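Hi R.,

Here's the chain you asked about this morning:
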Amino acid sequence: RGTVEPQLAGGQMITEHWYLVDIEFDGIWVEAMTSFAPSETALIGTRLMQEHRLHIDFVRRSVTLTRSESD
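And here is the predicted structure, written out as tokens:
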């Protein structure tokens, strides 16, 4: 536990408390750093998706996340 100062998309800096939590992502339990906000949804960092491919199709309005095949 500690504090972190992330920069938001609009450029402003904020201070948040962060915590280590265990979450299940794509069927695998991982330890992740999180902060809490008054929201019903959560954001994940791109580090959790490092073994995945993200496809965004704006025309079809769809998003697909698949686990990458090892080369």
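One quick note: The mean pLDDT is 86.

Cheers,
M.
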